[in-house]
Amino acid sequence: MKVNRLGFRDYRNLKENELIPGPQVNVICGDNAQGKTNLLEAVWLFTGGRSFRGARDQELIAFSSQAGAVLALDFEAEEREQTAKITIGRVAKKRAAQFNGVDQPAASSLIGKFCAVVFSPDHLSLVKEGPSMRRKFLDAALCQRKPAYARLLSQYSRTLAQRNTLLKDISYHSELLETLEIWDEKLSGLGAAITIERKRYLERLSEAAGEIYDGISQGRERFAVRYDSGLLRDGGEEAGYRERLFSLLQNGRKEDLNAGFTTKGPHRDDLLVTVQEKSAREYGSQGQQRSCVLALKLAEAALLAEALGEKPVILLDDVMSELDASRQDYLLNKIQGWQVFITCCDPNSISGLSQGRTFYVENGEIRG
User: Which three-class secondary structure string do you get for the chain?
Assistant: First the structure.
């Protein structure tokens, strides 16, 4: 998968223009708040997802625009050139999309047609913050790789919400207690299926990320990530996960009723990330934590490439800071066979780029 052209008009602070990237590493350099990240964000929107910065659609339109923003992408996928277009209306207040000239029901219809993996400074929360961000990372990676997992996750979330509502209602209507077992059974089946998918994926992700981290650190440090789940702590076969979760829900019923929510299940699981067999969250340096997230994101790209049969585009935002020269060299010169977009502020950090293209952004103007 490869971007051949990105066109944009009235998008954030970017002046109307187009970007013609190279097939390998593309470095986008400039001071803060000039528009570098806006370019990566524009590419990312063609995955069908929302802004990786959490921005609302209306925030993507240039202040001066009355009509709205327009993005156009020419890219190679499935061994042929394809096109996509996104329009973000000022009045309609939503995104519309075309794929190969055909109007799509929604912008989300682009999911699976163009694929990318993105790293942004916000992703450092994968290591630095609590477990919810790590679960979101794992689930998002699985959804891109396996669309059926998205449906499974949605079913689990709805069932969990219904069980939580019931737990609150029981305190006012005790006769509802006898219906709780029905929700326990349903949640157990869905939760066991999610745990199995996460566990299998993470086993492969851990191996791939370990190899990448070894390259980033030049073999100086050992990296590992493992799935921390209540269903796995006592061992046992995957076939027994449903019964084990059902038992956990039954035994934890009093705790759940007191809390007013479900305290056991995959919505409480975590990923344990270590460097040199110590918690990266508690003991890792800034550079090590950044390297951990990079290894996870690049491993996500590698596994997605296996599933797709072609390599997704890699978007790395503000990735060079807090990395030493050898780690920067890995990102610039050792990621072979992928189209990569990297933003940076310091031109010195890209002095070691052996091949690729460099673009400069200032006040929304692009040159290069």
Answer: CEEEEEEEECECCECCEEECCCCCEEEEECCCCCCHHHHHHHHHHCCCCCCCCCCCHHHHECCCCCCEEEEEEEEEECCEEEEEEEEEECCCCCEEEEECCEECCCHHHHCCCCCEEEECHHHHHHHHCCHHHHHHHHHHHHHHHCHHHHHHHHHHHHHHHHHHHHHHHHCCCHHHHHHHHHHHHHHHHHHHHHHHHHHHHHHHHHHHHHHHHHHHCCCCCCEEEEEECCCCCCCCCHHHHHHHHHHHHHHCHHHHHHHCCCCCCHHHCEEEEEECCEEHHHHCCHHHHHHHHHHHHHHHHHHHHHHHCCCCEEEECCCCCCCCHHHHHHHHHCCCCCCEEEEECCHHHHCCCCCCEEEEEECCEEEC
d(CA 290, CA 293): 5
Average pLDDT estimate for 119-145: 89
What whole-number distance in Å separates Cα of residue 154 and Cα of residue 164?
15
Q: What is the pLDDT of residues 9-37, one digit of tens each?
A: 999 999 999 999 999 999 999 999 999 99
Structural tokens at position 314: 């890699």
**Cβ atoms of residues 138 and 198 within 8 Å:** yes
- 252, 180 in Cβ contact below 8 A? no
pLDDT tens figures, 50-94:
899 989 999 999 999 988 999 999 999 989 999 999 999 988 778
How far apart are alpha carbons 298 and 312 in whole angstroms? 10
Residue 111: predicted pLDDT: 86
Tracing tokens 């969990």 back to the chain, one arrives at 160
In the block, tokens 């207690």 appear at: 177
